[in-house]
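User: Could you go from structure to sequence for me? I need the amino acid at each position, not a summary. Structure tokens:
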């Protein structure tokens, strides 16, 4: 595979304040609203995380940070960013709102930050090559596939009113959520 070196779209100066904020954020570790990815090698997984954030409470995804909280950065941020944006455009329905920031951590290493607010258009779905659409939600530090019932909860949660949803099992038990 050939790699084309692309220059970052912003100046390669290290912003001490942004770097300090990044380090503080990373020390919190992954959780309900924070996810780390080393690279954008599997963009569908990144899209899945962004969809889960949009379907729940919003969140931040950092590309260039390992699960062990080490900030390694990526060498070609434009390539990584392009792959994610392209996958979002093709695999996420409806499209979601996000803010992308490039953080320089050294002369040739960067962290890409994606901030996703809770979406008023939820639920968002992942669609891959004509396969059935799948939605994801964030639970603790994981993005999980939502059940049909959870999709309905996500759909109704975008309205600012209390909703009671009754679920019934085959044993005729009823739960209120």
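Assistant: Here is the amino acid at each position, in order:
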């Amino acid at each position: 595979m050939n790699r084309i070196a692309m220059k970052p779209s912003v100046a390669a100066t290290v912003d001490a304040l942004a770097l300090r904020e990044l380090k503080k954020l990373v020390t919190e570790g992954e959780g309900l609203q924070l996810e780390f990815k080393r690279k954008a090698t599997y963009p569908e997984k990144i899209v899945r995380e962004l969809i889960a954030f949009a379907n729940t409470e919003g969140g931040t995804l950092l590309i260039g940070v390992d699960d062990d909280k080490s900030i390694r950065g990526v060498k070609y941020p434009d390539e990584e960013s392009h792959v994610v944006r392209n996958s979002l455009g093709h695999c996420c329905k409806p499209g979601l709102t996000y803010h992308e920031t490039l953080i320089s951590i050294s002369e040739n290493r960067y962290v890409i930050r994606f901030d996703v607010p809770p979406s008023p258009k939820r639920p968002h779905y992942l669609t891959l090559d004509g396969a059935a659409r799948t939605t994801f939600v964030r639970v603790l530090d994981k993005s999980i596939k939502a059940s049909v019932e959870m999709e309905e909860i996500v759909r109704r949660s975008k309205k600012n009113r209390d909703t009671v949803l009754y679920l019934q099992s085959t044993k005729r038990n009823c739960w209120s959520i």
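One structural detail worth keeping in mind: The two ends are 51 Å apart (CA to CA).
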